[in-house]
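Exam revision sheet. Question 4 asks you to relate a sequence to its structure. Input first:
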Amino acid sequence: MNMDKEKLVSYIKKLTEPKILVIGDLAIDEMIYGDAERISREAPVLILQHTRTKIILGGASNAAHNASTLNKGKVGVIGVCGDDYQSGQMIDAFEKANIDCRYLVKDPARKTTTKTRISGSITTSITQQIVRVDRQTNSQVSAETENKIIDNIEKAIPEYDAVILSNYHIGTLTKKIIETTIKLANKYNKIVIVDAQKDLNIYKNITSMTPNLPDTEKAVGFELKNDEDLKKAGDKLLSDTKAKAILITCGADGMFVAEPKKKYTKIPVFNKSEVFDVTGAGDTVTAVYSLALAAGADFVHAAIIGNIAASLVVRQFGCATTTIHELLDAAAKL
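Answer key, structure tokens:
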């Protein structure tokens, strides 16, 4: 891995400049905490005395939150929510995170995607998640909602430097929305990054994508056991998507960047000893990688910055973000 530390620091400092648009499956995480009091007489379940509730931006919203923390709110989102209580919580969370949500489309026929985690604790124990309740509509958005989303995409893309397509396969990113976004991004010479879990070959003529190892294996049809397999997978995805680079995130084994003309770079993981929670780390990588590319970084240095960011957020519980100061401190220790 060839890394220029001066360049790295310069690119990190420039992360505040680009404007990022996130299009995809927006969601919130509702974290409910309580103290375990006793077993209920009604059923063999714990009774929790509620202590607090925390609303966190999740799904595609987490990528937007990560970008907003770094670029001082130069972030917009496009997606769909329901006309329900949770939509109010989502909008409030966006506003508190300094994220522009004016292009959010409300659809009364859908639920606002919400993952409720209920956790309990006792004085002698750490907090433990007990149950998770998901509210979401899994079908694709209606034709009417699809058209509203596309209208908003047409208005928004010229305002931004880079576009992230964040697909959690909950129904927002239809084939038409994906194709329209990529076509418009290319028309206006915008960076377009894809974060998806399956059907990776449907994203054509993009700047880059950030699949993890298992999703890459599913997409290419073979196991990735060594560097030669990674090279073969990278080449296949480059060919299938016509991307300028593929960034494969490999968990504890770091990252792998494949570029045309057989150019490959293996990036080691920067933090193995303090991993508490990997929730949302992929969103962090995508957001920071996109920001760095939009700030002028090459694919390898952008991936390294994304890797540093991921090494910081996995030290925290739940979907987390990092700051320019933390990135600079971590880069100085490399």
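Marking note for examiners. The chain has a mean pLDDT of 90.
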